[in-house]
Amino acid sequence: MWLLRLTWALAVLGVTAGSGPSPSPSPGPTVPPPDKASIFADLSPAELRAVRTFLMSRPELGLSPSRGGPLAKNTLFLVELLPPKKRLALRYLDQGGPRPRRQARAVIFFGGQSEPNITEFAVGPLPQPSSYRPLRFKGGRAIPFAARPMTQLEYELLHRTLAEAMEPLYRLLRDSTGFWYHNCSQRCLTFSDIAPRGLAPGERRTWLVLQRFVEGFFLHPVGLEVLVDHRDPDPRRWAVQQLWYNGQYFSSPQELAQRYEQGTLAVAHLAEPPSQQLFSSYEPRGRFATDTPTEVHGAKVCEPQGRRYRLRGNQLEYGGWSLAFRLRSSAGLQLFDLRFNGERVAYEVSVQEAIAFYGGHTPAAMQTKYMDAGWGMGSVTYELARGIDCPEVATYLDAHHLYDADGPVRFSHAICIFELPTGVPLRRHFDSDFQGGFHFYAGLEGQALVLRTTSTVYNYDYIWDFLLYPNGVMEAKVHATGFIHATFYTPQGRRYGSRVHSHVLGNLHTHLVHYKVDLDIAGTGNSFETMDVRFENISNPWSPAPVGSGWHSLGSLGRGGRWVLPPTLAPTRVGLLPAPSDGPDPAPVPHRYHLAVTRHHENEPSSSSIYAQNDPWEPLVSFEGFLRDNETIEDQDLVAWVTVGFLHVPHAEDIPNTATPGNAVGFFLRPFNFFDEDPSVASRSPVIVRPLDPPTFSRLEIQRWTPASPGPCVAPGPFTYNGTY
Which residues are recorded with the post-translational modification 2',4',5'-topaquinone (predicted)? Predict the structure, then answer.
């Protein structure tokens, strides 16, 4: 059995193998060779180019380049690996079956036709594609064109529309902020857009928050928000529908400008931003009271005797662990064929979605419900800085994305892998003799292998980690950092957050992250079991005195298609969406459940989609539909869908950025009576100390299986960073 443990709850889930005793895994022989892991590898730049060249050559598709030109055209938006179906992959991995055909998933925006739509295709076989076929979502629904993610071209057209609309407001913006939008070269305003883009399916109306374009512009709203309708494929028909300025609504820029000229407008005058030590910058300012040194390097991670993990292609091995991994452009890190000592633990563990729901007084704040798969969460994996984002000694890997681009784009150092000293022993014991000495001391230093990437989704940075521990425990964790999503401060806004600077409100919001955990414990025939622990009174069998008490456990087998964490085990309901009966809710429903367990189905590969952000009212992927059948989950191929999250009440200490301590959530996979003993006993890293001459303790036997001294640690070398992609 393996336990899935949520970091904000007790251990509540058990997934058991099918009937019969659990096997004792044997190390070595059953670890798959690296060429087998390659069926899950991301597409190479050559494969991405081959898919694009093939599709561009098909006259019936009528494709045009993505950049430049009109919006009303057919374009290739996304190309990424289409993973093989699970049954075909397992047949190949476990039974010597044929290697699954390598295929790509291609997303095409058909905007240049009378009824625009979006179609996804399977393209293959790779590396020389020769055919394509449409992919269908469960239920066979077509993808509405209005549900498409934003593109760079659409942003450029929005900028032109906004620049023209802001021309009447030049004097107001110049006088109140010192910056303006149209015809500017230095003291410019910029904008952030929010979503969903409207209030009903088919709409594409976006509130834009205007900000001064300085370092950390997310924290510099100027008090103006503009609603633009940009649904029509022809940008000449786009229009500003409303404006909000300093607590008041206006029907047009001209009305707002007229009020200013008449002197009847409540104007928000902003101070000139300083040229140095701007509050939104990382430049040091102030001093610590102790004056302990910070101008020298702090502690570092090192590998004194070299790396203790093995990376071959996309196969990673560490201690008893082996796995294949990829970085999806659409949603981020995805692990496949996760094994410990050759025994498969999970077929897939992957990030599905990250959402942030906001409250506020301004129209943009009250409308904001970010669903980051719709913003290319897996494609914004910018360069990791050595020594900051990951240790200097880490292995750094590049990623190649074809996302809203006319070819693959290289993101250097997008992934890092490193062994991390946890700073706490994995286990230890001091065996006292209670007379000033000891019988023995034994300890095993704590370490874990970390697989990491980041997603910078505009203002927010997510740090995605999978950690592998020597005792068969896997941890999935995400840290939230970056700039808060801030709006202009008004007294009415205090209900929805904190005033974090003179004109800046940090808006209250929840962070929710959804994972897919396709567990295969000793095969695909698993059952779902919960364990509850209760306090009971019992008769004391060895004394007729008062009644004793103790704990006992209760196990129950799940038989429905859904299981929700009981309220008694959940510390708070904050962060989950309303239950379906609580009223209208324009959000994808996976996040209503702390945990849901369903049968595996090939047509349910993901719980969300890149289209949910701009059409959350009628999502293409209906997670609720995964649960409606209420299928038995006993001795079946099971998938656990896990939601973790936290409530973020912004505060002044979120300036300039939200810090990672206290802003991390995740879950653990832990073996539970699966092994005969802690499997980390296979590690050669423990230290055992025994006294040879008690009670004097002048001579000790120190038993270890590693060199007595770790040796030199960090190799010298200057910090370098490129940052381009």
Answer: 460
Write down the pLDDT at residue 15: 59
Q: What is the pLDDT of residue 722?
A: 60
- Both 668 and 571 in one domain: the answer is yes
Same domain, 99 and 176: no
| pLDDT (0 to 100) of residue 540 | 78
Does 286 fall in a domain? no
Whether 14 contacts 2, CB under 8 Å: yes
Question: Do the domain assignments include residue 157?
Answer: yes
Contact 42, 385 (CB under 8 A): no
The answer, as to whether pTM is greater than 0.85, is yes
> Can the peptide bond before residue 656 be classed as cis, meaning omega within 30 degrees of 0?
yes
460 included as an active-site residue: yes
CATH number of the domain that 492 lies in?
A: 2.70.98.20
Give the CATH number, domain containing residue 222.
Answer: 3.10.450.40
Task: Give pLDDT, residue 628.
Answer: 81
Structural domain contains residue 12 = no
Q: What confidence score (pLDDT) does residue 591 get?
A: 62
Q: Is 372 a catalytic residue?
A: yes
DSSP state of 588: -
Euclidean distance between CA atoms 336 and 323, whole angstroms: 6
- pLDDT value for 593: 80
Q: In this structure, what DSSP letter does residue 34 have? A: H
320 and 201 part of one domain? no
Q: In this structure, what token pair is assigned to residue 307?
A: 């790396």
Q: What are 201's two structure tokens?
A: 């399916």
Q: Where are the alpha helices (DSSP H) in 168-214?
A: 170-177
- 3-class secondary-structure state, position 355: strand
The parent domain of residue 195 ranges over 152-262
Quick count: other Cβ atoms within 10 Å of Cβ 564?
Answer: 13
Nearest to 362 by CA among 192, 146, 214: 192
> 161 and 107 in one domain?
no
Same domain, 383 and 453: yes
- Does a structural domain hold residue 376? yes
Query: If the chain, 725 residues long, is cut into consecutive pieces of 10 residues, what is the mean pLDDT of each piece?
Result: 56 49 43 89 98 98 95 97 98 96 98 95 97 91 95 97 97 97 93 97 97 97 98 96 98 98 97 94 95 93 93 97 98 98 97 96 96 96 97 97 98 98 96 91 96 97 98 98 97 96 96 96 90 80 68 56 48 44 48 86 95 94 84 92 95 97 96 95 94 88 85 63 56
Q: How many helices (H) and strands (E) does the chain have?
A: 8, 37
- Residues 160 and 117 placed together within one structural domain of the fold: no
Same domain, 313 and 361: yes
Name the active-site residue from 460, 462, 515, 593: 460
The count of structural domains within the chain is 3
d(CA 570, CA 645): 12
Q: Calculate the CA dihedral of residues 624, 626, 632, 637 and round it to 10 degrees.
A: -140
Same domain, 251 and 322: no
Q: What burial class does residue 133 get, using C-beta atoms within 10 Å of its C-beta: 0-12 exposed, 13-18 middle, 19+ buried?
A: exposed
Three-class DSSP category at 155: helix
Q: Which of 247, 262, 277 is the last residue of a domain?
A: 262
Q: What is the DSSP letter of 273?
A: P
- Domain termination site, one of 672, 691, 714: 672
- Choice among 372, 389, 461, 465 that is catalytic: 372
Give the model's pLDDT for residue 84.
Answer: 98
